[in-house]
Amino acid sequence: MTVPKDIPEKWFPLVLPLKRNKQKGLNGATSKKKRTEEERKVRANDREYNEKFQYASNCIMTSKYNIVTFLPVNLFEQFQEVANTYFLFLLILQLIPQISSLSWFTTIVPLALVLSITAVKDATDDYFRHKSDSQVNNRQSQVLIRGSLQNEKWMNVRVGDIIKLENNQFVAADLLLLSSSEPHGLCYIETAELDGESNMKVRQSVSVTSELGDQNNLASFDGEVVCEPPNNKLDRFCGTLYWRDKKYTLSNQNMLLRGCVLRNTEACYGLVIFAGPDTKLMQNSGRTKFKRTSIDRLMNTLVLWIFGFLVCMGVILAVGNAVWEREVGFLFQSYLPWDPPVDNFLFSAFLSFWSYVIILNTVVPISLYVSVEVIRLGHSYFINWDQQMFCSQCNTPAEARTTTLNEELGQVEYIFSDKTGTLTQNIMSFNKCSINGQTYGEGSDPLGPQPKRLDFTPFNPLADPDFCFYDDTLLEAVKVGDTHTHKFFRLLSLCHTVMSEEKSEGELLYKAQSPDEGALVTAARNFGFVFRSRTPGTITTTEMGRSVTYTLLAILDFNNIRKRMSVIVRNPEGRICLYCKGADTVLLERLHPCNQELMNITSDHLNEYAADGLRTLALAYRDLSEDEWEAWSERHRSAAKAASCREDRLAAAYEQIEQDMVLLGATAIEDKLQEGVPETIAVLSLANIKIWVLTGDKQETAVNIGYSCKMLTDDMTEVFIISGHTVQSVRQELRRARDRMIEMSRTRDGKEEGVEGCFMGNGFREGQGDSRGGEKQLQCPPPPPSNLMDNISGEFALVINGHSLAHALEADMETEFVSTACACKAVICCRVTPLQKAQVVEMIKKHKKAVTLAIGDGANDVSMIKSAHIGVGISGQEGIQAVLASDYSFSQFRFLQRLLLVHGRWSYLRMCRFLCYFFYKNFAFTMVHFWFGFYCGFSAQTVYDQYFITLYNIVYTSLPVLAMGIFDQDVPDQRSLEYPKLYEPGQLNLLFNKREFFICIAQGIYTSVVLFFVPCAILSDATQSTGVPLADYQTFAVTTATALVIVVSVQIALDTGFWTVINHVFVWGSLGLYFSIMLALQSQTLFGIFPNQFHFVGSAQSTLLQPVVWLTIALATAICIVPVLAFRFLKVDLKPQLSDTVRYTQLVRQKKRKPAGRSVGGAWRGVGSVSEGRLGARGSSRRSGYAFAHTEGFGELITSGKNMRLSSLAMATFASRHSSSWIDTLRRKKHSHTNTPPSASGESSPAPSCVSGSIPPLSNSSSVLSQTLNAGVLTPAALRSQGGDSPGSWTISLGAVQEALLRWKGRASASNSPVKLAE
């Protein structure tokens, strides 16, 4: 059930710390530090008593600033950044005239710009936090004050207040339910904001308070609650109510938690136990962590290195100054004396050092940080504007909620995903069934005509119009009165705990505790067996149009051990029958021997259903005689009244009666996945991304979803289940699994044969099931080296339960768990708590040093989302808690594929190219000053005009590199999705690392050497046509500056791989702007107005009119560019990267495309979806589909009548969940870089966006090179490709190199507009 749109739940960004002693008072003032709370005492209707404990109020404050504190606090935070402090230090140095040869405005202008932009961004974010806080805090709630209900804002609610809630209202704080308008103090809540589950949950007040329905009685209520302190356990509450000299035990069933919504209940009253930051919702929020990308961290390291390099250059030049002043400078003292403060050569060297620090600081200009923020902002807008990530059904676009993590989207190695609402739609559908050995609901031939959806209305006016079924043979069997079919659907209409309400004639609303039950009861309804209503002792149905009332004698309730439920009913004729449904693994063992033949047939059907990823159930019945019923009923009553071992005695009674049953058949329910989930997981796996599912559901549910979304397949080598209850047993199971993987990997590598046997029943390997060497296992050596585990070949998966995970997360077990789990292709963690989700993420971050991404949709995922490097929220029907805590949000899991493989990869590529070019151009610019120092007596004289120094990074070279950083791409988005292996360079951090940095620096230094010494050598002997020498400072400065701008412009033209109109305008426009500004600044006009500011008057005109100057510039440009160009041509020809090959094949296709032809990628795209076929045979495994979301005791609640209204109970029908094999993943990264012939092995295979059953699974050795070779589109050079994307020496892009070559040869047109890019 979704939250009504007229009640927008704009919850606060969850940023408060968990520890109360670090919190500030949430009522606007700072509270005193309090000792750690050990227990909580709350007295109803007594604010004076409760206030002495200084409990937190219900006010939420997530904002960081106010009008007074914003400026000082924000500036303090910004100057904690090393870069900002560094530039402030430079600014102070520039204000000292004795050491500064540059004007102060060259630093203060960009510094002020950076500080202002960041301040505006922080102020905007904080404004929205204030707005969100205000919206939540000002909500109205009805509080019982002095005997009357008064409207109070949420922020004014206090612990101990009694609140009245009405239907569809949000719960304002954590409340103890006191009374309700429903019988027996029951109320119904929706917890989507807390746990992502939309199915209704029941809460009940303590019996002694349930009678306090009148507000006068509640006003006199003075009970005292003593309970546990605030904690983050959503499913646990321990407390005691003391009232009238008696005490009553309190549990989680008595609590209404903040974030829940009251449903199907007119009104209820609750006592505030926890408020504000103490609520379980806030306690689960975790601490907001400031997230930085790996590139940010690397840049901080590089900045420190560059600063050290700057100091070294300053020391060298200062020493040179000292030597020069001592040996040569004294000769000039008579007409060139030292400035007054300088009285010796050592002091002169000291001042020279600081002067050179100022001059050479442009190796790390502050414009770098401005440009990075602008580029990230552009990437965020591209995500927001992407129409292919827009969900038209819910009118929700993708949203980048942060601008600081975009490039890290291109480096993800581990994805941690929730299940409910993230992978699934929460929609269950009755898909197939087996009745008396006959299977129904078979899929149609994909090549034949598609069957029509059955119309049940003429046959059954009470049918649900939304029910879909396509096999008319089952409907015909019902119509002709087939006995077995009638018994089958009669069982489904009776054996359940569903509640029903009939709002009007024929309009039935079902409310099921589990979506499975809702789907089964709805199926029975449509096939003529309609569940109408129930009382504590009866069930009324309509069977084939005839109303029938059954006497409900007993409900044998479900639990996780039994994995089944039964009902015993008496029909109107007086016959007693037991109906049972449950997991086939437990139900088939309890059948009468006469069912053997039918059981074999049904087992085959169950295998087929399980192979299709469906959730299966077996159905059986047993006729009971009156004597059998009476004898068992007596035993059941005595077990139910037992003072001790009640649960065990009931289980034994249930076991006794559930024997010798007759098999009816089996059901198969499709747990609907979100659209495109199997395809997305398959493609992400091909990109070497490992996906872990962390879910609170039990094992059966999680495993079925794993098979549905193709994380698990029967083609896998082995699936290990870890379910130990002690540290030692978990350690044994992990080690056995690891040893098994190593053993089977060696066997696989040695013989290339499938491994036989060693499976337990359904393809699973129970860790605790192998008792061989049990004691010896305790003496096992430590985990094998990680490199051994990394080389494991084969498809393995790991399923671990929550109680086992708790042991695996202990400090001494982490290494064991990580080494085993990370060797598996898939990991599923079941029954995990929100805290365990976060701990798993932190463990991988700690041990694997890999970039992690967490994706979820509920409040129980918030801790995980905040712990991961990147958090993604699904903005579906489960509330928006996860979205508000996330860095990125969208409405469908399938959009994750495009977010990572397209936007993430492009962002990483662009940022790496930007940084490489930026460091290159600034070293080329700055190092000229270093070489000039040896020619100017180390006097800190600049080579360039001071206006050129100021404008170089702000105007002349800023726009082209921004255009490249925002718009560049190596291959189009469709190719990025077709070739997931292109994603690997980001995971391996190949495009920008320390090696690449030093290469860029080396190229920049080489360029500076050429730009200084070539003009110096030529102009020293050159003369004008009039004979006047050209060897003057101003001519040299203009020549060098012009050559520099031209060289870096040509270089960025080579680096740009994707040309747009904006790129052309910025690159060539910046070049034209340089000449225009230079001519203007050196004009006679400005010199006449400001004679003391413009000293290069006329230099540009006179210099640029000399042919020798242009020849010098051309020669310097050629010497700088030709080696780079030659190297890149050779690299593309001899050792192309995968991106080079993909780009080349694309251009050739565009050139040779025929009207009727199709490309290799296009052929893939034309194939149907994974869910329409199977990837290989499944073998004979069968998985239990008894995955009800039941909680034990719901059957007892029904039979007690406590949940029955005087009128029939209104309960809304439910939505539920979807489904499909994991495509073979590519080889390990280490193997992918081995030198193997392209025909046998290569880098990747194009990942199909949709894979059909008619296409064989991709082999591990499938190669894009071999496929494109068969397509006839590769050159001999491309055939020499070895391995995957290797680090390019100059961060090469094929854009300018290969495309220029092809266009020169064939004039292939492959232009894309910037508008398309923005999509």
From TrEMBL:
A molecular-function term among this protein's GO annotations: phosphatidylcholine flippase activity
Main location: membrane
Active-site residues, Swiss-Prot/TrEMBL: 418 (4-aspartylphosphate intermediate)
EC number(s) from the headed UniProt entry: 7.6.2.1
Record-linked Gene3D superfamilies: Calcium-transporting ATPase, cytoplasmic domain N, Calcium-transporting ATPase, cytoplasmic transduction domain A, HAD superfamily/HAD-like
Residue span(s) of domain P-type ATPase C-terminal: 883-1136
Domain (P-type ATPase N-terminal) ranges: 42-108
Region described as Disordered: 1225-1255
Gene Ontology CC: plasma membrane; trans-Golgi network
GO BP: Golgi organization; phospholipid translocation
Locations listed in the record: Membrane
Cofactor dependence: Mg(2+)
Keywords recorded for this protein, A-Z: ATP-binding, Magnesium, Membrane, Metal-binding, Nucleotide-binding, Translocase, Transmembrane, Transmembrane helix
Membrane topology value: Multi-pass membrane protein
Catalysed reactions, as listed in the record: ATP + H2O + phospholipidSide 1 = ADP + phosphate + phospholipidSide 2
TM ranges: 102-120, 302-324, 344-370, 914-935, 947-967, 997-1020, 1035-1054, 1066-1089, 1109-1130
Domain of life: Eukaryota
Matches recorded under PANTHER family: PHOSPHOLIPID-TRANSPORTING ATPASE ID, PROBABLE PHOSPHOLIPID-TRANSPORTING ATPASE
Name of protein: Phospholipid-transporting ATPase
